[in-house]
Specification:
This is Amino acid permease. The protein is an all-alpha fold. The chain contains 19 helices and two strands. The chain has a single domain, classed as Amino acid/polyamine transporter I (Up-down Bundle). The protein has a two-stranded antiparallel ribbon. The longest helix is centred in the middle third of the chain and has 35 residues.
Length: 522
């Protein structure tokens, strides 16, 4: 494979990229050389695509990372906020699935906005998506270190140790994601199986122990716990609203399947099913898990004060041996989920760099000829993790969780608005996902939901630092966008033709050839 660089030429196309189509529709008469284009390989089957989306959501991971925060702000009764988050996020997933059923390109919302609105709007979608994914990778690694790995190794709570372990985890994940897409798919599929098994075992084991010993308390399901003394519990930005963070943090990332659309087999069918199916499955499994976990709390105050409350509940009911076994499985689920997010993030950077619209595009658009993976784009995520671990003050996990939830909320809101603007332009694929007459009501409800989520996320007092981080990223994006408009404006004036047909479907404008297939030209 030749060296794939995204430097802008006089024609506006990255070197080695497909020839551009200008706004007037004129095309370079020279057919592009498919072998010279950055290529990804279709190796992910239907279950693997679902596994990737489900692993990104990762119920067990999300609960482990945020259950303690929920106990401290809303109390055990806060688990019922999960239901509202599940309904709202399913509405958003239905809108996202409608896009995925029509455009199957790496970059998801970036590609959708670029091709259905214009490349300038698409760029902001891509920028938001990249940083949301990058922060999510680091969040999962830090949560794995502090909530699973350190209790498993018998280490006491220590912020510095957690940060060091976070970086070690990121390096190992990056090495595996770079090594092979197939290996990555196998690990994430195994992680999903382990996670589902752990949830099932925990639910059954805890219910059996509670039934045999009577050592469970139904009153926990309506208990406010330590938050009973909070005078602002029901206020805007108060404890109850803060408790919603668990569901809002966990039930995101269902769109990650669309980020790997160019590596999925039959993507127009498998990707939308994975998006909707994963969020519904995660919502149901998560609610059952939370109810049983909360019933099993022996001492609400003691568990709330524990640095790893889920591990404390398991230890209290099942003993230290089962705690280590199950927490070990959870650690593996954390690891697999982190790999999913890292792969999706690297593909987002790759997709933008392939179009010459990402910093260091020449480097970030390179695909290794042996592994067929974007190495530099993957390493970039590790570098971001290092910067965050060095720069974030206080409890890194809390800051990462809030910031990592605010970014997807902004992005999902933008996706819903985009869909409302372009829905009449979308072609219906035979047999593709379609909401029919429910399309407009579902989209409007999704928009209302996202607005509520943004209010919930920015009003708590501990949202200040994460909100400033997000604003800083948006400002940095605006500066880079202005630089592109001044010095690289051509990258926004062209779209690149050439994509291999997918399962007999008509070619879609704007993607590199896949699996070595020749890129068709008109």
């Amino acid at each position: 494979m030749t060296d794939h660089r995204a430097a802008t030429t006089t024609s506006g196309a990255p070197n080695g990229a497909p020839k551009p189509t200008t706004k007037s529709g004129a095309k370079n008469p020279t057919p592009p050389d498919a072998a010279a284009q950055p290529q990804l390989k279709r190796t992910l089957g239907g279950f693997q695509v679902f596994a990737i989306s489900f692993a990104f959501i990762s119920v067990a991971v999300g609960v482990f990372a945020t259950y303690g925060e929920m106990l401290q702000t809303a109390g055990p009764v806060g688990i019922w906020l999960w239901v509202f988050a599940a309904i709202g996020q399913t509405l958003v997933a239905l809108v996202v699935a409608q896009f995925a059923a029509r455009i199957a390109l790496s970059g998801s919302s970036y590609q959708w906005a670029s091709r259905l609105a214009n490349p300038k709007i698409g760029w902001f979608f891509g920028w938001l998506s990249f940083w949301y994914l990058a922060i999510a990778v680091v969040t999962m690694a830090n949560a794995m270190a502090s909530q699973a790995l350190m209790p498993l190794l018998g280490l006491s709570a220590d912020e510095e140790v957690a940060r060091i372990l976070t970086l070690v985890i990121l390096v190992v994940q990056a090495a595996l994601v770079i090594a092979s897409t197939r290996l990555f798919g196998m690990i994430t599929s195994a992680a999903v199986a382990v996670e589902l098994g752990i949830i099932a075992v925990l639910v059954v084991a805890l219910l059996v122990v509670i039934a045999l010993t009577g050592d469970g308390d139904v009153a926990n399901l309506t208990d406010r716990g330590v938050s009973i003394t909070d005078p602002n519990y029901f206020a805007i930005g108060g404890g109850l609203m803060a408790g919603a963070l668990m569901g809002l943090t966990t039930l995101v990332g269902f769109d990650s399947a669309a980020n790997l659309a160019e590596e999925a087999k039959n993507p127009y069918r498998n990707v939308p099913r994975a998006i909707v199916g994963s969020v519904v499955a995660a919502s149901v499994a998560g609610l059952i898990f939370l109810i049983v976990l909360t019933l099993a709390i022996r001492d609400v105050d003691a568990v709330t004060a524990d640095p790893s409350p889920v591990a404390a509940i398991i230890r209290g009911q099942l003993g230290p041996v089962w705690e280590r076994i199950l927490v070990g499985g959870i650690a593996f689920a954390f690891f697999g989920a982190g790999m999913v997010v890292m792969a999706a993030c690297s593909r987002q950077a790759f997709a933008m760099a392939r179009d010459g619209r990402f910093p260091a595009a020449r480097l970030m658009s390179r695909v290794n000829p042996r592994t067929r993976t974007p190495i530099a784009a993957t390493i970039l995520i590790v570098v971001i993790g290092i910067v965050l671990m060095l720069a974030l003050p206080g409890d890194a996990l809390v800051q990462l969780i809030v910031g990592g939830t605010l970014l997807p909320a902004l992005m999902y809101g933008a996706i819903v608005v985009l869909y409302l603007a372009v829905r009449t332009k979308l072609e219906r694929r035979p047999g593709g996902f379609n909401l029919g007459r429910f399309e407009l009501p579902v989209t409007l409800l999704a928009l209302v939901w996202v607005a509520v989520v943004l209010v919930v996320l920015v009003t708590p007092s501990d949202a200040l630092v994460p909100s400033l981080v997000v604003l800083g990223l948006l400002f940095a994006g605006a500066v880079y966008f202005a630089w592109l408009m001044i010095f690289r404006r051509a990258v926004f004036e062209t779209e690149f033709d050439g994509v291999a047909p997918v399962d007999g479907a008509a070619p879609v404008v704007g993607a590199a050839a896949i699996d070595g297939a020749a890129a068709p030209v008109d």
